[in-house]
Design goal:
The chain is α/β, with parallel strands linked by helices. It has one domain: Nucleotidyltransferase, domain 5, CATH 3.30.420.10. About 35% of the residues lie in helices and about 15% in strands. Strands 5-4-1-2-3-6 form a six-stranded mixed beta sheet. The protein is globular, with a radius of gyration of 18 Å. The mean pLDDT is about 95.
Length: about 240
Amino acid sequence: MLEQFDLHNIMVLDIETVPQYSSHDQLPAPMQKLWDLKTQYTRKEETAEEFYGRAGIWAEFGRIICISVGIFTRGKNAGLRVKSYASHDENELLIQFADMLHSQPAGLILCAHNGKEFDFPYICRRMLINGIPFPSQLEIAGKKPWEVNHLDTMELWKFGDYKSYTSLNLLTAIFDIPTPKDDIDGSQVGHVYWVENDLNRISTYCQKDVVATAQLIRRYRGEELIGDEYITLVGE
């Protein structure tokens, strides 16, 4: 599977998001009411205040604090090069990310795990809110489905079974892809950001998911995993 794709034309990405405010009581009053309405059928027994810790899931109530990207490198020791765009200023982060994509070929393929349901639309919504024009790789309006250069490793695993959700953690386990187990998970990102103020830790976590997704692509193609010595984390 995926043998028809040139790995060097694929950019793997992952995003980390948090609620726009540190707590529900920091929300402007009109947004508190809208949050209550938005989540009334989702939060079950929890109050709107208790449920606010998950606000980062929705682009209307959250924001992006990190986008990590990975590209497959060429050469004798072909591997993976990973870089993060992380900032407390979402506008600045998105401009840097957009500028990077503008410098890439228009036909570059973007890949993420659950990217079609989360990462890609979330980035587009936050760019729109921030008044940032879409790079061509994210512009899908008016395109036919087969003209959109987006890959989703979760969608590929479904094989048409649309009722199934399979986490990246589960797929790395069944494909025997080593992943560090000594750090945070997605549910803790908001706490690490708002309470611990540790953006670097979140960036590292985001990079690990990019590496895991890239390794999953290799497994889908029936190829050997990239050795740790051939994975470069830019900035380290």
